[in-house]
Amino acid sequence: MQKIYWQAHRGGAYEMPQNTIASIKYGWDLDAIVEVDIRTTKDNKIIILHNNTLKDTTNAPEEYCDIDVKNLTYEEIYQFDAGVTFDKKYKGERIPLLTDLFKLMQQNKKRQLYLDLKDVNLKDLANLIKEYKVEEQCIFCHCDISNCIEIKNYVDIRCMLWIGGSEKEIINKFETIKKSKFFGTNQVQLHLNSQDKEKEWIYDLSIEFLQYALKETKKYSIDLELFPWEIKENNIKEMLDMKFTWFCTDYPMQFRTILKNYFKKEV
């Protein structure tokens, strides 16, 4: 049975209040590598938050909603609930500090994190990773290869280049990074955007291109990760048939169930 590695995007953005301790533990409990987004506050604290404001994921009042978090202290940010807007049962969740997660990782070396750069000084991030000794448990990720190259100057860490956009943009960027022999990264992630949901294959990137990309990355021992924005079980099983072993999902429980059903046929 092949080992499948998979990422719980923001902890599972459609199943849990994203980028919270609850979602992060949820992803870990499902054996996922959890992805979080990192930003810096006014008082130079690295926090876990995707957008640059509190508007969409907290109950922050109107006067705070449109303020960039880089202009707020962590004490100001911490007062607002980051779980209740998703579901009342998560009332009391707060936007965590990156160090909160590092402490949890120190308790269990199997816990891993993708760190998706939003607004953080890379040298500061590297120093924090080294301080908590979680180098082997972290994977840095960004859409700009120069950031992957830069952080490797400060800390020995795995890096992933994620590639999004239109079908043409993704293919062009993949070809560009291929020409460099994937210099600066250990993994490449391709976004699979949904197009016609009535079709047998619903994603914009063709099966033929994915097979080609897998062959090319294998030449350089680069992991190729697929991120289907929407899940169609038959298509996921096709990817498994093609021997893809790295995935990303916003639906960790649903994805895990598909994996269980798929591998039952081998038992």
- The outline comes out as globular
> What proportion strand?
15-25%
Largest sheet: 8 strands, parallel, barrel
Number of helices: 10
Q: Mean pLDDT across all residues, rounded? A: 96
Distance between the termini: 9 Å
* CATH first level: Alpha Beta
> CATH topology, which one?
TIM Barrel
Order of helices and strands: EHEEHHHEHEHEHEHEHEH
Gyration radius over CA: 19 Å
Number of domains: 1
CATH-assigned homologous superfamily: Phosphatidylinositol (PI) phosphodiesterase
Second CATH tier, the architecture = Alpha-Beta Barrel
Spans of at least 5 consecutive residues whose pLDDT stays below 50 are none
Question: How many strands?
Answer: 9
Structure report:
- The structure is a single chain.
- This protein is an alpha/beta fold and 267 residues long.
- It has one domain: TIM Barrel (Alpha-Beta Barrel).
- Helix content is 35%, strand content 18%.
- The chain is built from ten helices and nine strands.
- The chain has helices at residues 21-29, 62-65, 74-78, 98-107, 122-131, 145-152, 167-179, 207-219, 233-241, 252-264, and strands at 5-8, 33-40, 46-48, 113-119, 138-142, 158-163, 187-192, 223-228, 246-249.
- Strands 1-2-4-5-6-7-8-9 form an eight-stranded parallel beta barrel, surrounded by four helices.
